[in-house]
């Protein structure tokens, strides 16, 4: 196993174009943007459907359909329609993010202990108080599991950005394969895997911090 590319100090320069740190920053930027956009779209929809019970058929089937879409094929379609650039990549990654967040928000709201919700209403809480003080905290563990799943998927899949000329860790894979430099390909695969593990650990710590101990 040749790890020479990964352990070459020249590839870890903070200022050199195409260095591993710069590619990591670009990769993380795509991931963060896709997660923010996907959460803004999916979370309110999932919470509404879960809270009201309306459109549950739509939520389940939209989630299943979204998971079945090939990200690379969708990216190529977006490039054909919109041209090269960040926008097609973000659309493809956002479509990947939406299903797990939407379905986990829906599931979190539908699996609540309704005796607690009824008790809150019996205490005179208004609907918005029930939602934000009772339902959301109780649904948070399930919602966080969906967010973590989405984050891991998009970290791995953001490598497709290199297929349309953008930076990111996918550059190590694409460029390495182009010149048969398998040390570079291996370095890219290892860094992506480590990044995914680190991100999941960060989100696990965040979940432990924001979720009430009684709900873990």
Automatic annotation (TrEMBL):
<dbReference type="GO" id="GO:0055085">
    <property type="term" value="P:transmembrane transport"/>
</dbReference>
<protein>
    <submittedName>
        <fullName>Glycine/betaine ABC transporter permease</fullName>
    </submittedName>
</protein>
<dbReference type="GO" id="GO:0005886">
    <property type="term" value="C:plasma membrane"/>
</dbReference>
<dbReference type="GO" id="GO:0031460">
    <property type="term" value="P:glycine betaine transport"/>
</dbReference>
<feature type="domain" description="ABC transmembrane type-1">
    <location>
        <begin position="24"/>
        <end position="203"/>
    </location>
</feature>
<keyword id="KW-0813">Transport</keyword>
<keyword id="KW-0472">Membrane</keyword>
<feature type="transmembrane region" description="Helical">
    <location>
        <begin position="71"/>
        <end position="102"/>
    </location>
</feature>
<dbReference type="InterPro" id="IPR051204">
    <property type="entry name" value="ABC_transp_perm/SBD"/>
</dbReference>
<dbReference type="InterPro" id="IPR000515">
    <property type="entry name" value="MetI-like"/>
</dbReference>
<feature type="transmembrane region" description="Helical">
    <location>
        <begin position="186"/>
        <end position="210"/>
    </location>
</feature>
<keyword id="KW-1133">Transmembrane helix</keyword>
<feature type="transmembrane region" description="Helical">
    <location>
        <begin position="150"/>
        <end position="174"/>
    </location>
</feature>
<dbReference type="Pfam" id="PF00528">
    <property type="entry name" value="BPD_transp_1"/>
</dbReference>
<keyword id="KW-0812">Transmembrane</keyword>
<dbReference type="InterPro" id="IPR035906">
    <property type="entry name" value="MetI-like_sf"/>
</dbReference>
<comment type="similarity">
    <text>Belongs to the binding-protein-dependent transport system permease family.</text>
</comment>
<feature type="transmembrane region" description="Helical">
    <location>
        <begin position="28"/>
        <end position="50"/>
    </location>
</feature>
